Structure formats: structure tokens, C-alpha cells
């Protein structure tokens, strides 16, 4: 046996064992560094978790906050981290609560990071909003979060957290408004009227209501108008309307309405009660009611007041107005203690003794008016009252006479349509008298005006006397436009020639024609005066007056205007009618006024207006 050789073999084996052990140690070291010491680490539960920050019991539309935390405590980074959070049923994401970026894929949220280095991480708060409505007891469950990432070329998956559950606490909240009653005819509720009944329901809770039944009960004595019922899906049972709503959703509101007819046979002041009940499978039980009162009244809608001119034609100042009041009871009950008050209208006076009324007494009669009283007017019965008024003589400018009568029964006032009648204004007639001293030194224009107003009381005459002593036709022609400015005369009376005699017939003819042309251009009715009596023995220079007289008549004929003959009446008694060689005495002025009046009236109508 070769001992040396054996020792060498043992050493070789030992060496190989040592080498093998070293290789194993080195491999373990390398594995530890790469697989453990140099790997990522998400095992620390204080840094890597999913937890709820909200209570387990919630109401619809409340928020659920879930905090997701991850942190790499290892010595190696991870890449392409992909986090998926499943959105629980009955919730939705509140995007306004997220500060970072995320993706939403169908029913999950996805958060992505390109790399998470060692000692890096993040906290994410996910805010959910519970749906509304939700049934009471509904469960909302949040699943664990799945995290995927890569280490080198190897894909890893990490599950964080456990399932979390939340329970919904909810209920419907049914509301029932008060009942609104509206008489469609307005005013008091009476037999034959139509009454509208309306109310509203709503669900202001956070859960849909089921099995909702709304029952509206109308008074048994009334008639429901079926076509007026809304909503249309209803059942009608013995004056009760039933609406069934299987699913009354949150925030819904419904308007209900129907009409009832008030028939005959209901007593005065009887109360009609309308009620409504609402129930639901969730235990709601709501009631509302409203009552209306039937009123029975006499009615005077067909009553009327009429006024008319008792003399016919136009109503003038001073005329008599005949007024008539017809009272007809078209109501539901007889009228008692009927009072008709007839005050005297403004600008009028009561004609004593003119008031009459069938089956009535006059309880007051004065300058202020008449008050009639009637004990009773049955349904459908008519009564009439009448009285006369005289229009004030001061209403010459016209106007309107209006009644202000009133009607009451048992202290209740009733409307009655008033009447009115127009008073015609007196006609305004302007007469312009132009000439020389035979106007200036005489009052015949004023006398003429008085005679016309006495003859025609419906016309007011304005007489303008425009006479200038010593004036000729030429002077009148020169001042015509300025003298007549501001007036719009209906009639123009011109008297020239006395001062023109001796001055030349051609000149007189020219200016007199010119004056007539100017007067006719004013659209007036024109009259020329002839020359009156001239005492040539006192004024020899006027002895050629007949030539001027002829010119006056010729101008009148040529222009188709009348010439008033003053010569004949004045010359019949010159000693009485003329004070000197030509001017009129008071008696002469009266004769001139009468003569001119006789001519002018031929051109006036029955009211004193020119034809």
C-alpha cells in the first residue's frame, strides 16, 4: 500500500468537497442578492394595504372613500406596474376627487406606473358615490386590489386587501300637498258651477316607493267630470278616483286634478268636503282635505240701465233725459229688501215727480236723487223703475252724462252696468261784420247776435263788429287780411259805399270786387249791404250815390252773393231812423238788425248753422 498515494487522494477529495461547498455558498449568496436581498418588497402591511375610510352603513348618494397604498421596501425597482380596482356595483366614481391620472375600463379603474424604485410608493384615495335611489339593505361590496408588475423579464402579481362591504340605509319620503279648490266661474261657489280640485304628490326620499295608491274622494252630491281627471290612468268607484303607481321614483312629482259639477238640490251654505289619501307598501299614510261652501244668491246679471233724450234727436243743454232701470232676478233664490239708489248725475238735476217704480216705495227723494225699495223679487221676476233728469243749461260745450246707480239686496251689493249719453255741444257760429262808421257808430251787430241766439238756442254766435269811420272799400281791402286774421268766420257781412261816393265808380267797383273775392276765399257765406238813406241836402257831394248803389248790386250778382236791401226800410221813415245825413238812430239800428236777420236766416239750417 502506497500511503503517500492514499493521502494525496484524500486531499484531492477534500479539495473537491471544499470547492463544491464554495460553489454552493457563492450560488446561495448570488441567489440571495438577486432573489431576496436585491428583489422588490411589498410585504410590509403597514405600507401596502387597501382600507375603507367610510362607515359601513351608508345612505344613497353618499361617498365611500377607499385608500390604496403600496410601497417598495426592497432593493430593486419594478417596472410597468398595473393596478386594477374593480368598481363595486351600485356605485360610480367621483372624478373630482382624483388628483392623479387613471384609466376607466368598463367597470374598473386602472392606475399605471412605468417604474417604482426602491423605497418608493404612493397612496391613492378612491372616492365612490353610492347610487340614488337604492333599496334599503342593499349591499355594496369592494373586491381586493390586483397589482401586476415586472421584475426583469418576470411578471409578478400581488393581491392587496380583502373584500369590504357596506350596507345601504334608505327609505322613500312621500309628500302630499294641500288641496286647491278653484271655482272656474270665479266668485262664490254656486249651483251649476264647476269646481276644479287639484293637489300634488312627490317622493323626496332616497328610495323608490312601491305600491303607491292615491285615492281622491269627491262629495257624494256632486258629479265628477270624467274627461277632466288627470293623470288619465285611474279607476272610478262611487265618486272616488283611484290612481295606482307601482314604482314612484325618487324626485318625481305628480300633479292630480279633476272637476266636479255642483248640481241642483244642494242647500244654501252647505259644505262640500273633498279629501285625498296616499298609502305605500313602505308604510306611508298621508291625508289632506279641503271644504267649500255653496252660496245661493239672487242675481241681477240681466239687469240694465238705459238713458235717452226724451225729446228725441240730439241731446242738448237744458234737455230732459229719460232713465230706466230694469231689474231681473236670474239667481238661485228670491231677492229681499232690494234697494235701488239713483243719485243725480253730474251736470244734471232731478225732474220733480218723474220717479216711478212698480211695487216699490220711494224711501228718499231729494235734489241728490231717488232711492227705491222693493220688498221682494222672485226668481225670474222683473221690476222696472224710471226717473227723469234735466241737463244743465251750462253744458253748451257738450259732454257726457253718466249714471252712477247702485243695487243691493239684503245688504249685499250687486254690479250693474252703468249707462251714459252724450250732450251735443252748441254750434259755434262766427259772423264778421266789416265796414265803415255805420258799424262803428251802431250796435246793430250786437242786436243781430241776440236775435240769432234767441231764434237758435243750439248755436252760440260770436259777432265781430269791425267798422272804421270814414273807411272806403279800398281801405277795407287793404286791412282785410290783418283784420280777419285769427278768425275763421262762417259768415261775412260787408257794408261799403257811403264814403266811396264821389270818389269814382271804377275804383269802388275794383275794390269792392276785391273784397268779395277775399271773403269768398275764406270759405265763408258772404253778404253785401246796400247803401241806406243818404240826405243829399245835407251832403250834396253824395248826390251820385245811385251809381254806387248799382255797382253794389252788380258786384253781388256777378259773384252770386246776396245784397241786403237796407235802403227800403230806412228810407221809409228817415226822420226816425237816421240821426244826421246817414247814421242810424237806435231805432234805425234795430231796423237794420232785423233786416239783416231776415236775410241771414234764409241761409241757416234748423240749428242756426249755415247751410
CATH uppermost class of the largest domain: Alpha Beta
Q: Name the beta content range.
A: 35-45%
Kindly report how far apart the N and C termini lie: 184 Å
Domains (count) = 4
Number of strands: 39
Biggest sheet layout: 5 strands, antiparallel
The coarse overall form would be elongated
Structural class: alpha+beta
**Second CATH tier, the architecture of the largest domain:** 3-Layer(aba) Sandwich
Oligomer state equals single chain
Question: CATH superfamily assignment of the largest domain?
Answer: SGNH hydrolase
- By DSSP (H or I, 4+ residues per run), the number of helices equals 9
- State the strand order across the main sheet: 6-7-4-10-11
Radius of gyration: 59 Å
Helix-residue proportion: 10-25%
Textual characterization of the structure:
- The structure is a single chain.
- By secondary structure, this protein is an alpha+beta fold.
- It has 4 domains: 49-168, Immunoglobulin-like (Sandwich); 174-293, Immunoglobulin-like (Sandwich); 304-423, Sandwich (Immunoglobulin-like); 427-603, SGNH hydrolase (Rossmann fold, 3-Layer(aba) Sandwich).
- 19% of the residues lie in helices and 40% in strands.
- The strands form 9 sheets. Strands 6-7-4-10-11 form a 5-stranded antiparallel β-sheet, with no helix packed on it.
- A hairpin with a 2-residue loop joins strand 10 (145-151) and strand 11 (154-160).
- Helix 3 crosses helix 9.
- The radius of gyration is 59 Å and the shape is elongated.
Amino acid at each position: 500500500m502506497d500511503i503517500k498515494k492514499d493521502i494525496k487522494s484524500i486531499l484531492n477529495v477534500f479539495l473537491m468537497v471544499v470547492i463544491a461547498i464554495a460553489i454552493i455558498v457563492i450560488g446561495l449568496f448570488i441567489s440571495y442578492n438577486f432573489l431576496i436581498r436585491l428583489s422588490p418588497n411589498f410585504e410590509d402591511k403597514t405600507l401596502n394595504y387597501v382600507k375603507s375610510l367610510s362607515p359601513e352603513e351608508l345612505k344613497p348618494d353618499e361617498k365611500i372613500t377607499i385608500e390604496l397604498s403600496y410601497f417598495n421596501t426592497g432593493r430593486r425597482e419594478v417596472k410597468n406596474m398595473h393596478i386594477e380596482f374593480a368598481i363595486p356595483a351600485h356605485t360610480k366614481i367621483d372624478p373630482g376627487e382624483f388628483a392623479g391620472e387613471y384609466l376607466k375600463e368598463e367597470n374598473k379603474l386602472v392606475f399605471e406606473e412605468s417604474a417604482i424604485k426602491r423605497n418608493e410608493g404612493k397612496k391613492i384615495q378612491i372616492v365612490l358615490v353610492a347610487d340614488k335611489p337604492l333599496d334599503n339593505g342593499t349591499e355594496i361590496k369592494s373586491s381586493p386590489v390586483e397589482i401586476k408588475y415586472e421584475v426583469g423579464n418576470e411578471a409578478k402579481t400581488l393581491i392587496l386587501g380583502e373584500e369590504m362591504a357596506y350596507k345601504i340605509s334608505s327609505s322613500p319620503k312621500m309628500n302630499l300637498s294641500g288641496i286647491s279648490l278653484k271655482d272656474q266661474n270665479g266668485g262664490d261657489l254656486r249651483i251649476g258651477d264647476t269646481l276644479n280640485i287639484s293637489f300634488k304628490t312627490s317622493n323626496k326620499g332616497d328610495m323608490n316607493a312601491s305600491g303607491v295608491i292615491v285615492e281622491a274622494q269627491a262629495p257624494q252630491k256632486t258629479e265628477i267630470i270624467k274627461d277632466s281627471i288627470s293623470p288619465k290612468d285611474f279607476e272610478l268607484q262611487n265618486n272616488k278616483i283611484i290612481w295606482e303607481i307601482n314604482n314612484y321614483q325618487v324626485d318625481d312629482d305628480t300633479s292630480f286634478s279633476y272637476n266636479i259639477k255642483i248640481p241642483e238640490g244642494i242647500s244654501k251654505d252647505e259644505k262640500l268636503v273633498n279629501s285625498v289619501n296616499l298609502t305605500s307598501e313602505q308604510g306611508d299614510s298621508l291625508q289632506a282635505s279641503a271644504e267649500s261652501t255653496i252660496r245661493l244668491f239672487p242675481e241681477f246679471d240681466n239687469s240694465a240701465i238705459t238713458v235717452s233724450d226724451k225729446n228725441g234727436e240730439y241731446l242738448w243743454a237744458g234737455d230732459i233725459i229719460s232713465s230706466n232701470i230694469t231689474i231681473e232676478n236670474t239667481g238661485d233664490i228670491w231677492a229681499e229688501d232690494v234697494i235701488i239708489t239713483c243719485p243725480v248725475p253730474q251736470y244734471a238735476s232731478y225732474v220733480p215727480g218723474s220717479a216711478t217704480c212698480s211695487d216699490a216705495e220711494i224711501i228718499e227723494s231729494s235734489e241728490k236723487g231717488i232711492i227705491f225699495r222693493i220688498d221682494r223679487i222672485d226668481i225670474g221676476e222683473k221690476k222696472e223703475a224710471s226717473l227723469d233728469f234735466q241737463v244743465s243749461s251750462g253744458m253748451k260745450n257738450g259732454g257726457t252724462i253718466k249714471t252712477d246707480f247702485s243695487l243691493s239686496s239684503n245688504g249685499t251689493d250687486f254690479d250693474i252696468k252703468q249707462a251714459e249719453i252724450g250732450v251735443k255741444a252748441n254750434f259755434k257760429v262766427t259772423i264778421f261784420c266789416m265796414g265803415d262808421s255805420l258799424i262803428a257808430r251802431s250796435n246793430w251787430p250786437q242786436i243781430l247776435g241776440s236775435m240769432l241766439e234767441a231764434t237758435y238756442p243750439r248755436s252760440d254766435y260770436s259777432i265781430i263788429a269791425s267798422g272804421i269811420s270814414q273807411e272806403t272799400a279800398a281801405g277795407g281791402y287793404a286791412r282785410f287780411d290783418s283784420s280777419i286774421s285769427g278768425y275763421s268766420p262762417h259768415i261775412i257781412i260787408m257794408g261799403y259805399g257811403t264814403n266811396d261816393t264821389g270818389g269814382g265808380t271804377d275804383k269802388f267797383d275794383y275794390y269792392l270786387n276785391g273784397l268779395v273775392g277775399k271773403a269768398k276765399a275764406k270759405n265763408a257765406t258772404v253778404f253785401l249791404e246796400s247803401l241806406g238813406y243818404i240826405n243829399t241836402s245835407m251832403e250834396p257831394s253824395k248826390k251820385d250815390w245811385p251809381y254806387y248803389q248799382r255797382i253794389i248790386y252788380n258786384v253781388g250778382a256777378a259773384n252770386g252773393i246776396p245784397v241786403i236791401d237796407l235802403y227800403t226800410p230806412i228810407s221809409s221813415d228817415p226822420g226816425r231812423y237816421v240821426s244826421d245825413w246817414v247814421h242810424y238812430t237806435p231805432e234805425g239800428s234795430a231796423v237794420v238788425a232785423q233786416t239783416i236777420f231776415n236775410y241771414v236766416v234764409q241761409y241757416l239750417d234748423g240749428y242756426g248753422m249755415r247751410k
